[in-house]
Amino acid sequence: MFGSRSLAALCTASLIFVSSPVATAQVMSAELKALDEQLPGDLINDPTRIDWEVYGNEVSSEPVIDQSIPGGGAALQIDVRNATEYIYTAGLNMPLVKGVDAGDDVTIGFYARTIEASSDDGNGVIRIRFQQNAAPYPGFGEKTLSIGKDWQWYEVTAKAERALRKKDGIVAVQFGRTKQVLQIGQTIIVKGASAIAGKPAAPAPKPVPQPSMPKSLQGAGTLLNDSSKADWYFEGSAGEYATLEDVFIFGTVATRFTTTKADSRPNDLFATVPLNTAIAEGDELLIAVAARSVAAEGQAIEAQVGLRLEEAKPPYDGFGDNQISVSQKWRLIRVKTKATRALAAGEGQLAIHFGGALKSVDVGPVYILKTN
After folding, report:
1. Are 160 and 104 a contacting pair, CB within 8 Å?
2. CATH number, domain 215-370
3. Distance, first Cα to last Cα, the chain
4. What is the pTM for the complete model shown?
5. Phi and psi dihedrals of 244, rounded to 5?
6. In the CATH hierarchy, which fold is given to the domain comprising 4-191?
């Protein structure tokens, strides 16, 4: 348990909560690097975010902002309206920003409390599992916790039985077996340490923006991706990317991609947007990307960006290769295409290629819809 001094340190923070998509994927801010230096082991998540992916039937979530919440005044409230036989049928996924090697000690620590629960003692019930967020979802370190009515700090440590990649490594928090209302606050995950308690806390969470669907797309079809998320996978040696924490478009944080190598290949700087729903051969698809080009040295430049629907694993077979032109003003750029092959649920992605000519492009939310 925390001593009074360390608990006070954990509760003090200077910011209030927004998701940081690029920090989640690859880049750690200076603020988080400073935290990393003070923590035991190696920080492998972004503690300034609570916009985790929540899944399950009859499960809803919403951010709660209250200065009395320890760890910075923000939490995610989860309402499980119906219980099922298996706990894993509902949960949330916390992405990792760094990989884990087999044999590493991995520890998660977080604040939580139960508002109400249908359990015998009135406590909430969750299970922590370190795993890969891709079929067949291999993992390790399963532990079930009873969550009390008052805010408490909980920790779970496991020895990594397998490696987890930063591309799809997560900590799964599962809660589908109990009808309950939970609040989960600031979370810290480290590798190479068997405890976190007593160390300084992360910067506080920042207010979560409320994403929205553009009116021009409402009723256009079935959304195949989670457009409220921008924590895509980013990679490439041809440039750099950065979160624009003060730039929101349709309620989602924008990300700036800057290509610095003019002779690079298109996929030498890219982002991939995961698809949550299967695509069948012959499906009519609409891709809409909110984007703008950034002026270089005061000169407006129209930028070319590539789009491709593909498998999310080698050899990345796909279809629908297109080039879009991005101007200096924010536009919702639409591309229509037809699926020439099927992509199973959770195994497809939209690749966005920025390599090639020198350019700087801001990208907001991406919408992938099936229109037939």
Report:
1. yes
2. 2.60.120.260
3. 56
4. 0.54
5. -100, 85
6. Jelly Rolls (2.60.120)
